[in-house]
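chain below, 110 aa
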Amino acid sequence: MKKLLLRKELATSQWNIGSFSNLGDWDAEKTIQSPDCEGGWVFAPPVLRCQQIGAGCMTFQNRLSLTIQVHPDLTNSPSVLQAWVQAWVKEIEIDVASVLNRPINNHWLA
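prediction:
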């Protein structure tokens, strides 16, 4: 039965909810000045039917970018993705505030 389901693509041998990748901190000293490299940089790991969420983060020139890509079998709603990214940012802010021992005031998510 398992071989039949796999062959008909109704099942996979392994399922993962998704993947996360952090590309790290790039050019913190802001030595890259090319106009082609200005602005925000974003990326996300690819998504598949068996790995439906791809989340990526990186810091370029001291600006953090967070990206979530979702397979359409999971959701097509931009508002769902926006809520997930906002929750992710809020968790980061809570962690930063706990390290600083003070709340982050006047933030759009507060």
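The helical segments are 2-7, 78-100. The first helix runs from residue 2 to 7.
thats it, cya
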